[in-house]
Amino acid sequence: MLRGPRERRQAAMTPGGKAPRLDLEHESAARMKQYLAVTAIGKDRPGLVHDVVRTIADCAASISESRMLGLGGEFAMQLLVSGNWHAMARLESELNRLAQDADLQLTLRRTEARGLREDHVPYSVDVIGPDQSGIVAGLAGFFTSHNVEIGEVATRSYVASQTGAPMFSVQLMISVPTRVHIAQLREDFMDYCDSQNLDAILEPVKN
């Protein structure tokens, strides 16, 4: 005999008249968005990116953030992937299988969404100068000493088109606490860059 919605709800009740709490908690956890940090590196070849992103899509997961680049003869990927509990569990299994088949070095780590920092303001930093050791370490030390958080770092070595001199560029995303006096920070930063023979720009992120 077919049951209506009300009868089905009553049938699911425990003898004490209460819904089984464990089932409800499991269902809620399955629906809740989960996050997985993925790092993969392997020999650079056509189709490598497609293999990874197709695996993510096939598991009903979504890429929230990604960074991909060639490193010499290798290709590296860093991704933040989101989905429900079932999607994440399946994705972990499928990515491990792909890593074996495609000879990838793979790291998977469960994580959570980054919270909003209302007491911080995002700034971007661009630095260019002669290629020399210690540039990134020096910049990191400067911002750390001023209680500024570094969120992203991208670097590149290249040859100047006019002079042929080896050059080095750095792009950073930083998070400045609202209690920090930005004018003083900018002045101190420019003084530091001048002392290191670096050209620099520090400006707020517009979006």
Word description of this protein:
The protein has helices spanning 5-11, 21-31, 48-58, 85-102, 135-145, 182-195, and strands at 34-43, 62-71, 74-83, 105-111, 120-130, 149-159, 166-177, 199-204. The protein has 207 residues and is α+β, with helices and mostly antiparallel strands. The chain has two domains: 23-111, Alpha-Beta Plaits (2-Layer Sandwich), CATH 3.30.70.260; 120-204, ACT domain (Alpha-Beta Plaits), CATH 3.30.70. The strands form two sheets. Strands 2-3-1-4 form a four-stranded antiparallel beta sheet, covered by helices on one side. Helix 3 runs antiparallel to helix 4. The mean pLDDT is 88.
What's the short version?
The chain has 207 residues and is an alpha+beta fold.
